Amino acid sequence: MRCDEVRPRLDAYVDGELAERERAALQEHIADCLQCGPEVAALERLRTGIRQHAPAYRAPQALRSQIRSALRREAAGKAHPGMAAPGWLAYAASLLLAVAVGAGGTWMVTGERQQDAVADELIDSHLRSLLGDHLTDVASSDQHTVKPWFAGRSAVSPPAVDLAAEGFPLVGGRLDLIAGRAVPALVYKRHAHVINLFVLPASHRDLAKTITRNGYTLSHWDEGDLGLWVVSDASPTELSEFERAFRAATGGS
Length: 253
Description:
Blueprint: H1 3-6, H2 10-14, H3 20-32, H4 36-53, H5 61-79, H6 88-102, H7 109-112, H8 115-129, E1 138-139, H9 143-149, E2 170-178, E3 181-190, E4 193-201, E5 210-213, E6 216-223, E7 226-232, H10 236-250
């Protein structure tokens, strides 16, 4: 099989939704492919992370009562064909949609969660990236390779730029899990220090510029509709230099 045949099936492969014959053919290709193999590994890590860390929400009692009432009306409509009753699936779906819209997009970490929780989660993600081989899903210093890799994998497009000339070379990128959502992380180096740049929706809030905890510094700024969060054990001065270089390269200064 060719890569262009395999890639559209990778999500189904990771979720175990393929027939055995098709799965075996993909498995044979993935075992030898330098592109599809790492992509499957990234999807599996993301799937595991979501299962382990994504919060589970119980439907409110009022919503459960409304759905039960809809089911009872559907059953009554079937018992009396002359009565018009909405399909309970459509009814339940409309209720769930109303709850989701009313929640105001609570996945947006920077808008709905306390800054301390955001800082803890981003620093934890930085530390996890230093363990094993999870630093990058796409390893490249070429911004034209790293940026397109995120297309279709994330709700935001990270502004990947190489800052090697300023002393902060780009080494790649990966998908990370923040508040149960896939978030792009661009990875840079400063001498022996790793710098993770997480790209989230902009917060548009009055947040502290820099937070230091346990030897790690987290710095934040917004560029347009993007919120940029940098985490590293590099010094605050070096992170300020990184921010200036990044803003200059992206036109965010």
